[in-house]
Amino acid sequence: MKTGLTHQKYVWEWGTHWDNTTRTIELGWYKAASTPTFESNVNIVKTGQGGLYDVVVEARSTQKSYSTSVDGNNVTGSRPLYGFVTRLAGWSDSSTPSNGTYNTSASESNIVLISAPSYTREFELLGADITTVVPDGQSITGYSFPIWYKARTTYQCQVKYVGMTRTACRNLFNSLNGTSGWWYSYHPYEFKAVTSGGTTSMDWVKNNNVTLYQCLNEFKASPVGGKLWEVELTLSQWDDKYTKSPNEKFTPSWPSVWSRVPGLSKFI
């Protein structure tokens, strides 16, 4: 496990360097070297009073890169952990029960709702603007202090699929573990000067030129006997909005990635 979870990791440095693409000497961030890095935890845990042990693995791999491009569309460009999982003993086992009823895929027919889709909204005080309504340098008369809030809406849901073959579990994992399944893309907000109708004011504005990604979902597959498995999905996502009115009307919108989870649409 330790050998498989040791990945080559580049060390980034700032300075002058030779760029093989442009064939020039440049000043900036560059990959200086590659070193073997182990970030995971592998523990041997004794089970009960007998002579049996479990190997408990907490796998982790951090990939870092520097770029002049502000878009993060290469979120799935390097996935060393995924490559390691696909090589684990038993991962490719496609054996199925010899008789009885079982499901070869996750669908509406074998989905179980553990925790219904829900959302919460919390407000956080960011600060106040200081703007002049009527110029007056002798007192605060004529000044207004509009208050900014960050409203964070968190969406959560939990489902499981029962009576699955191991191949069905693997196929569900592969279908979700990509940009179109697990990852939620969003644009960050910036506090900047905005001109409208000849008047300039400070405002929180969404920067559509920058794309960030969020993944708070969990996938858990467990054997239940008789060569059958069940998969439990814990889905979570948050959205932020900046506003001056904590009492504004709000209409929730379920995360778009949830529509790609088999059978979940019947509950939303």
Sum this structure up briefly.
By secondary structure, the chain is mainly beta. The chain has helices spanning 80-85, 166-176, and strands at 6-19, 24-38, 41-47, 52-58, 111-128, 131-132, 143-144, 147-164, 184-186, 189-196, 199-206, 212-214, 218-225, 228-243.
Question: Can you characterise this structure?
Answer:
This protein is mainly beta. It has two domains: 1-68, no CATH class; 75-267, no CATH class. The chain contains two helices and 14 strands, in the order ββββαββββαββββββ. It starts with 5 loop residues before the first strand and ends in a 25-residue tail after the last strand. The model has no long low-confidence stretch (mean pLDDT 84).
Topology:
Blueprint: E1 6-19, E2 24-38, E3 41-47, E4 52-58, H1 80-85, E5 111-128, E6 131-132, E7 143-144, E8 147-164, H2 166-176, E9 184-186, E10 189-196, E11 199-206, E12 212-214, E13 218-225, E14 228-243
Antiparallel strand pairs: 1-2, 3-4, 5-8, 6-7, 8-14, 9-12, 10-11, 13-14
| Fraction of residues in helix | under 10%
Strand fraction equals over 45%
Shape descriptor: extended
Number of helices: 2
Protein structure class: mainly beta
Biggest sheet: strand arrangement: 5-8-14-13
Q: Please provide the ordered H/E string of secondary-structure elements.
A: EEEEHEEEEHEEEEEE
Task: Please state the average pLDDT score.
Answer: 84
Distance between the termini: 40 Å
What is the count of distinct domains?
A: 2
Largest sheet at a glance?
A: 4 strands, antiparallel
What is the strand tally? 14
Give Rg in angstroms.
25 Å
**Low-confidence runs of at least 5 consecutive residues:** none
